[in-house]
Amino acid sequence: MIRIVTRARLARLEDAARTASEQARQASGAANEAFGRHLRELYAVTDRAERAEATTNEVSVLLSGALAELSEAQQELLRKDIEIRRLREELNRGPREGETVTVLLHHGEPHAVYASREAAHADTATHGYPADHVWTPCDERPAAVFTWRCEAFIYNPASRGFHRVYTAVPRALDGAA
Questions:
Q1: Starting from the edge strand earliest in sequence, which strands make up the sheet with 100-106, in order?
Q2: How would you classify the pairing of strands 109-114 and 161-164?
Q3: Which pTM value belongs to this model?
Q4: Are 148 and 106 in contact (CB under 8 A)?
Q5: Helical H runs in the chain?
Q6: Is residue 153 classed as helix, strand or coil in its secondary structure?
Q7: Is residue 30 over pLDDT 70?
Q8: Fewest 10 Å CB contacts: which of 2, 25, 29, 93?
Q9: Nearest 10 degrees: CA dihedral of 127, 128, 131, 134?
Q10: Is 133 in contact with 124 (CB distance < 8 Å)?
């Protein structure tokens, strides 16, 4: 088959080719712009996801620390609750016959009351006395002449009170009636 191409047809074909080429160039530019937008959106979404993951990790660390602190606080509350119950029971039962307490006197004035003499001695160590201080029984001098003095008191149910364990023996004064 023979085809005869005229100048007018050739001009129309060249014009159609230029138009198609221009449309292809515009489509390629639009595709490149769309691809660029999609890449920028992808980078932005990836960045947000990475920041969200970092924030999630940070919050996770903070949350685990807070949970550990909460657990420790709950355990401390439980220990304190047990101690409060024990002290309440001890308070409600009241003193028993023969039970002793030790009063720590500072220059003759009551400073504190302790369940044992050892606890009173340990407290004086916090006030400047050495922990290995040898405590000796007090003589008949007034309590005010001693810097620290421990006095034991024993519960007497008949009088419903504590009385001094050691009482000074009255000595006879020469010539006094």
A1: 109-114, 100-106, 148-156, 161-164
A2: unpaired
A3: 0.41
A4: yes
A5: 7-93, 117-125
A6: strand
A7: yes
A8: 2
A9: -110
A10: yes
